[in-house]
Design goal:
The complex is a heterotrimer of chains A (about 625), B (about 575) and C (about 160). Chain A is of the alpha/beta class. Chain A has 25 helices and 17 strands. Chain A folds into five domains: about 110 residues, Glutaredoxin (3-Layer(aba) Sandwich), CATH 3.40.30; about 210 residues, NADH-ubiquinone oxidoreductase 51kDa subunit (Rossmann fold, 3-Layer(aba) Sandwich); about 90 residues, Ubiquitin-like (UB roll), CATH 3.10.20.600; about 90 residues, de novo design (two linked rop proteins); about 55 residues, Alpha-Beta Plaits. In chain A, a hairpin with a 5-residue loop joins strand 9 and strand 10. With about 575 residues, chain B is an alpha/beta fold. Chain B folds into three domains: about 80 residues, Roll (Ubiquitin-like (UB roll)), CATH 3.10.20.740; about 120 residues, 2-Layer Sandwich (Alpha-Beta Plaits), CATH 3.30.70; about 350 residues, 3-Layer(aba) Sandwich (Rossmann fold). Chain B is built from 20 helices and 19 strands. In chain B, helix 9 packs across helix 11 and helix 9 crosses helix 15. Chain B is globular and about 75 Å long. Chain C has two domains: about 60 residues; about 80 residues, 3-Layer(aba) Sandwich (Glutaredoxin), CATH 3.40.30. In chain C, helix 1 packs parallel to helix 3, helix 2 packs antiparallel against helix 3 and helix 3 packs across helix 4. Classes of the chains: A alpha/beta (about 625), B alpha/beta (about 575), C alpha+beta (about 160). Chains A and C meet through helix 2, strand 9, strand 13 and helix 18 of A and helix 2, helix 4 and helix 5 of C.
Chain lengths: ~625, ~575, ~160
């Protein structure tokens, strides 16, 4: 494919097919009567969506529906908690938690009989008390969302470049190569106000400008797909659901800065994303969207994949480059900045997946369109991975400035089991905990930083009253201690010492002086570490100290863990009123800490008790409690 | 070739200064009288910004920045001495110390330790951080080097030296996080790796994590043993550096005091390895002339540096035939002492205990090689480094500065200037050329200073006309340079008749057994240049400047060896090599 | 305890082909290590030596890389490698307890392999299946929305 006309003709050929999946579409021109979209993201794959696909294939063939029904394996729909998810168009019937044995019902009743299988529908997706299906955009989970980066996820088959083209794919690249100068591209990105979605929020246009200004015959464009923040999976979902968007954006970036080679550094823990990327790169080469003389413009660009090997620090830009260069993924000091001296010593830009996913839209629809969403300093949307103690775990994309409350309560459906919201953690191990009293904070880069957290890549973990904040701080420190590369002193030894103090506190052995030391050391690690990992590693400690100091003090002064999490401070007791003296607990106890006479109340020797909780699990009368 | 370097204006601690644009903040500060503490930085070797001791405040920058890697720029404003900076450095140091085996009193680097000095400078009073410490087994298997990771501060100066400068690459950074350590693959002992024992890691180490295998006990025992005739020889580079251990400025030759000290330590005879060096030249120059005349394997490469020899055996087995078959000077000398000298003076060679004082720790390994013997007797029985000699002198209560200058013992009290310059890079080459030129030309050549092969440039080349023939020579010092040179030859890009290779950058004056110079002092002075000065001035002062003109040599050949390359010379003075494989 | 190396001629040929394919490529060490681990299942000294020699890097450097990245293993994995996700989403939903339970059932610690070579246990980083938290993987199978009680039954399916 060498011309925009060819691109256009593919788009026209594929348009009706894909347009039918548009929720508000009335388009009936497609050759197919039904389209069955099955989520092929990691979440749904883990809960069995691949068996659904083969089941559908079998039954479609058996019933001779091949020319009437189109089966599409898509990327993530976002509502991972309900997986596996199947959506059938034209109705937009949202089937959730579908099992293999449900498939024949959908085939026979819906695809052959024309009747939606009500029992399998996600309850929120029908108007209450009726069988009438809501448009996806009316479902609470989707209502407040605004999909820019995720626009193709769950809509197209990511393994088919033509479906991407049908959604205006590669049109932005065509526009850039045919109508724009590199400087115009950079100006457009700058004017859009797009900031890096991977962490610190550096203005993307500025970054590109620096690299464009650097002299050099060889430059590189890198994509950070080493999504290491535990609880964040938006980059993975984009790569699984819309890999071409990233390839297209990287090629645009290459044109803008004068690079002709790109690397995608992706976690090896993401096998599906890696596979889809490989397919996408192969197809892009076949269609001439990567390689020599793209669109006959004389511009060459190609992309290679590099697999990470399990090191969180490789998400840091200089460490990532060191890793691509084939070494231990240790960060290096800046300056020189990568835009001047990056990968293999030449000018390099590095953006993360979500940042790239925004680029084609900005080029096609303009900087103003993009900047019309969001807040003054944070433009556009942000994808969050909702997780933890929340109903609708999954992926959401909202305008910058949406409040935490809207995300947690309206989109996320609130906290399960009637528990109370305690805090939300953003930014992973680099971020902090936002307490309930700040739930109305609008989420953008600056407001999150102001309250001691950070955007990070967008993991948002919700915690309820059963989570101990000291334990959470300790959890993150365990993570950073494990993941510290060990190069610089403050991070290598400092985080270890922080963790040791935290451990002491959770074991009830802390003193009030430890709190001061904790704070002092945390600040020293922040100020003195070599890279972003060390500089942000103390954030979980500092933010919990700031908002949940009382919990720390309870551990130290009262020797209790208010959330009943810290084992060292737990006390298991048997309620003599409830105990029937069945002796089951005493038999379960691995250390013989429970004694008593059968048929009269038993007792736990707290000195012997190792707090394993086995007795509590087994007690048929719920007579054992922990405090 | 030098491009014009622009100056930039910047401010340090409010002081306006102008420095070359390729400087780092650390260099700019030091040049302007401001000392910034460092640990992982080692000039020309290690520049990683890892230890965070040298952090400074930079106006407009969020975090504190490592000055050793931060480039200067126009208008840069730097503060090196604020409370924030000082507190931060102290916390960082306290953290380092919290995972450090702090048994300073029994540490070989006690009072010569950069970490200890920092703790003193920065006013560390206590270590407020208690917690787990990494503990490691000490690797003492190698004949030359002891590695004690319990004292390692992970500055990686040794790694950068071993990997980037020497390209020996047998140690590297392993594991990660709190478990990060420096080590060999699969925790092998250095003795089981392709380590060449050059000891450059030792003199790069700021603490006691790397040290030589101490052999002073054996020497003390031999001295105390009345049945032993304990003979010592000292290499040329030792006199150029030993004084530093006793407060003399770098580059002071302390030959006379050293001879006096050795005598007071109780050695029965005190000889100069330079005589051995003259002997080496007699044999080596002859070998070169023979190879040139008879179409032998060329280029011929010197074999006096045991680090280089082992490097060749591991990495360039295809060059083993190019190595001169000559033993190194101290081995030759040991062999002569236990044969000719013993015979002449009626001493039972079995009762001789031969000690070499060397600027080198690879000599310890070399002395133990099975080939280095004659008639069942080791050529050399113990090798101690310059540092170990200094320790012995201190232990014996000898006030070095008050010693008189004394001569070496008869009959080898004389050595030529050619023997002395062995201690500096290019010295062996120059010494050999002085003799070979006379041999090939058939007359005494008067122009004897070959400046083309002197100096600290990594690879030096020269063409010397000898007896009408253009002889192409090259000198490489530091094994990284040696590797480059040999690869060029292998690829057909270069061609020589004769090559000198020294394992250590700068040659023996900067050997792994020499006094350790703190990284700070290395910033101000190039010790390779300073120490070499002592050596070249001794050469100039010497009455005899060619090995073959040394009367001791003439006598030795007349009375015993007959002529260079004779059967007896081969038996005593030549050796063989083995291919050792990469791992 | 060192496990004797049981590499076959075929595996060696495969590895040599991989090294040849990457020779001269910048930054080849990590991709080669990935492929070598796919071939052998782990990266013992014999394999690392071949890679070091083949790519012209030192064994110490190769070993330094292998021990830096958690995905590279010096020991063979079990027939059914078990991974418990300790990502935040899984952790707050109790994956720590799942891990404890597994240690208890298998009588091994994290990073170890059962005596019969059947199971090995790892605590993994977030695998991104947060919607199914808490999650464990056994081989390529993902088991989500776990409770401690289910663990034993699931493991039994594989033994």
């Amino acid at each position: 494919m060498k011309s925009l006309e060819e691109l256009k003709s593919i788009r026209e050929k594929m348009f009706d097919l894909v347009d039918m999946r548009n929720d508000d579409s009335e388009n009936t021109n497609s050759d197919y009567k039904y389209q069955v979209l099955v989520c092929g993201g990691t979440g749904c794959t883990s809960s069995g969506s691949m068996t659904l696909i083969s089941e559908f294939e079998k039954l479609i063939e058996k019933n001779g529906l091949g020319d009437k029904v189109k089966l599409v394996k898509t990327g993530c729909f976002g509502l991972c908690a309900l997986g596996p998810v199947v959506i059938v168009y034209p109705e937009g019937a949202f089937y959730s938690m579908v099992k293999a044995e449900d498939v024949h019902e959908i085939v026979e009743q819906h695809l052959m009989g024309g009747k939606v299988v009500t029992r399998l529908l996600y309850e929120e997706s029908v108007h209450a008390g009726t069988d009438e299906i809501k448009s996806l955009n009316e479902i609470d989970f989707y209502k407040k969302q605004h999909r820019v980066a995720l626009r193709n996820c769950g809509v197209i088959n990511p393994e088919n470049i033509e479906e991407y083209i049908a959604r205006d794919g590669y049109a932005a690249l065509g526009k850039v190569l045919k109508e724009m100068t590199p400087q115009q591209v950079i100006d457009t990105i700058s004017a859009s106000g797009l900031r890096g979605r991977g962490g610190a929020g550096f203005p993307t246009g500025t970054k590109w400008q620096f690299a464009a200004n650097s002299k050099g015959d060889i430059k590189y464009v890198c994509c950070n797909a080493d999504e290491g923040d535990p609880g964040a999976f938006m980059d993975r979902s984009i790569l699984e659901g819309d890999p071409h968007a990233v390839l297209e954006a990287m090629t645009i970036a290459g044109y803008a800065i004068g690079a002709c080679r790109g690397y995608i550094y992706i976690r090896a823990e993401y096998p599906i994303a890696v596979e889809r990327l490989k397919i996408a790169i192969k197809q892009a080469r076949e269609y001439g969207m990567l390689g020599k003389d793209i669109f006959g413009s004389g511009f060459d660009f190609d992309i290679d994949i590099r697999l990470g090997a399990g090191a969180f620090v490789c998400g840091e830009e200089t460490a990532l480059m060191t890793s691509i260069e084939g070494h231990r993924g240790e960060p290096r000091p800046r300056p020189p900045f990568p835009a001047v001296k990056g990968l293999f010593g030449v000018p390099t830009i590095l953006n993360n997946v979500e940042t790239y996913a925004n680029v084609p839209g900005i080029i096609l629809k303009g900087a103003e369109w993009f900047a019309s969403t969001g807040t003054e300093k944070s433009k556009g949307t942000k994808v969050f991975a909702l997780g933890g103690k929340i109903h609708n775990t999954g992926l959401v994309e909202v305008p910058m400035g949406t409040t935490m409350r809207e995300i947690i309560e309206d989109i996320g459906g609130g906290i399960p089991n009637g528990k109370k919201f305690k805090a939300a953690q953003t930014g992973g191990p680099s971020g902090g905990c936002i307490p309930a009293e700040l739930i109305d904070t609008p989420i953008d880069y600056d407001s999150l930083t102001a309250i001691g957290s950070m955007m990070g890549s967008g993991g948002l973990i919700v915690m309820d009253e059963d989570n101990c904040m000291v334990d959470i701080a300790k959890f993150f420190l365990e993570f950073t201690v494990d993941e510290s590369c060990g190069k610089c002193t403050p991070c290598r030894i400092g985080t270890k010492r922080l963790l040791e103090i935290l451990t002491k506190i959770t074991e009830g052995k802390g003193t009030m002086e430890d709190l001061d030391r904790l704070e002092e050391l945390a600040n020293a690690i922040k100020a003195g570490s070599l890279c972003g990992l060390g500089q942000t590693a103390p954030n979980p400690v500092l933010s919990t100290l700031k908002y949940f100091r009382h919990e720390y003090e309870a551990h130290i002064k009262d020797k209790t863990c208010p959330a009943h999490v810290c084992k060292g401070l737990l006390k298991f007791t048997i309620d003599p009123d409830k105990c029937r003296g069945c002796s089951l607990c005493a038999k379960q106890c691995p250390v013989g800490a429970i004694s008593g006479q059968v048929k009269s109340p038993f007792k736990i020797d707290t000195d012997k008790c190792v707090k394993c909780g086995a007795c509590m699990e087994k007690c048929p009368f719920k007579a054992i409690s922990k405090q | 070739m030098s491009e014009k370097i622009n100056m930039v204006n910047m401010k340090i601690n409010g002081m306006e200064i102008s420095v070359p644009e390729n400087y780092t903040i650390l260099e700019a500060a030091r040049e302007n009288g401001i000392d910034i503490p460092t640990l992982c930085y080692l000039k020309d070797v290690s520049k990683t910004g890892a230890c965070r001791m040298c952090i400074v405040e930079i106006k407009g920058a969020r975090a504190l920045q490592a000055s050793c890697v931060y480039p200067v720029s126009e208008g840069l404003e730097v503060l090196t001495n604020t409370k924030k900076v000082r507190d931060q450095r102290r916390v960082t140091l306290e953290l380092l110390l919290s995972d450090h085996d702090r048994k300073c009193l029994s540490c070989p680097r006690n009072q010569k330790c950069e970490l200890q000095a920092l703790a003193d400078d920065l006013g560390v009073e206590n270590i407020p951080f208690e917690g787990e410490m990494n503990t490691y087994d000490i690797d003492e298997v190698s004949a030359s080097i002891v590695r004690d990771n319990n004292k390692c501060v992970l500055c990686r100066r040794c790694v950068n030296m071993c990997k980037n400068v020497q390209t020996v690459s047998v140690i590297d950074t392993m594991e990660r996080g709190f478990r990060t350590k420096v080590g060999s693959a699969f925790d092998m002992s250095l003795a089981d790796t392709a380590c060449v024992n050059c000891g450059q890691c030792i003199i790069s180490c700021p603490t006691g994590a790397l040290r030589e295998k101490n052999n002073t006990k054996e020497v003390w025992n031999a001295i105390a043993d009345d049945s032993k005739v304990v003979i010592v020889q000292t290499a040329p580079a030792v006199r150029a550096a030993l004084g530093e251990e006793f407060g003399y400025p770098m580059g002071t030759a302390v030959t006379g005091k050293m001879a006096a000290a050795l005598r007071r330590l109780g050695f029965d005879k005190v000889f100069d390895t330079d005589t051995g060096a003259d002997l080496t030249i007699m044999e080596e120059a002859n070998e070169l002339v023979e190879r040139i005349k008879n179409g032998g394997k060329l280029p011929m490469i010197t074999s006096c540096s045991p680090g280089w020899v082992k490097f060749c055996e591991h990495n360039f087995p295809d060059f083993l035939d190019n190595l001169s078959s000559c033993k190194s000077p101290h081995e030759m000398f040991g062999a002569i002492i236990k044969s000719y000298y013993a015979e002449k003076h009626g001493i039972d060679p079995k009762s001789i205990f031969m000690v070499s004082v060397m600027p080198c720790v690879a000599k310890k390994f070399e002395a133990g090689r099975p080939e280095m013997e004659c008639g069942g007797l080791r050529d050399v029985d113990a090798v101690i480094s310059t540092r170990e000699l200094a320790d012995m002198i201190k232990e014996a209560g000898i006030m070095f500065s008050k010693l008189p200058d004394e001569e070496f013992d008869q009959p080898f009290e004389r050595a030529s200037g050619a023997g002395v310059i062995f201690g500096a890079t290019g010295g062996v080459m120059e010494a050999a050329l002085r003799t070979a030129a006379d041999t090939l030309g058939g007359k005494s050549v008067e122009e004897i200073e070959y400046h083309g092969v002197r100096g600290v440039e990594g690879i030096k080349e020269a063409t010397v006309n000898m007896g009408g023939m253009d002889v192409k020579v090259a000198v490489a010092h530091g094994l990284g340079n040696a590797r480059k040179l040999l690869e060029n030859i292998r690829d057909g890009k270069a061609d020589y008749h004769f090559i000198e290779i020294m394992a250590c950058p700068g040659g023996c004056v900067n050997g792994g057994g020499q006094p350790i110079v703190a990284s700070k002092d290395k910033m101000d002075k190039d010790l390779r240049v300073e120490r070499a000065k002592a050596i070249y001035s001794e050469d100039r002062a010497s009455g005899i400047r060619k090995s073959h003109e040394n009367p001791d040599m003439v006598t030795l050949y007349n009375e015993y060896l007959e002529k260079p390359g004779s059967h007896r010379a081969h038996e005593l003075l030549h050796t063989t090599y083995t291919s050792r494989g990469l791992f | 305890m060192a496990i004797p190396f049981k590499g076959t001629k075929e595996q060696e040929e495969q590895l040599k082909a991989v090294i040849a394919a990457h020779k001269g490529e910048k930054g080849a060490t990590i991709p080669v290590l990935h492929e070598a681990q796919d071939i052998y299942g782990y990266l013992p000294i014999e394999v690392q030596k071949m890679i070091a020699e083949g790519l012209g890097v030192s064994l110490a450097e190769v070993y330094g890389i292998v021990t830096f990245y958690t995905q590279f293993s010096l020991n063979p994995k079990g027939e059914h490698p078990i991974g418990v996700c300790l990502g935040t989403a899984c952790y707050v939903k109790g994956s720590g307890d799942i891990l404890e339970k597994l240690k208890d059932i298998l009588k091994i610690d994290v990073g170890e392999c059962t005596d019969d070579g059947k199971f090995s246990l790892d605590a993994t980083r977030c695998i991104g299946a947060c919607g199914l938290a808490p999650v464990m993987t056994i081989g390529d199978d993902v088991h989500g929305r776990l409770t401690v009680d289910q663990v034993e039954g699931i493991v039994k399916q594989y033994s």
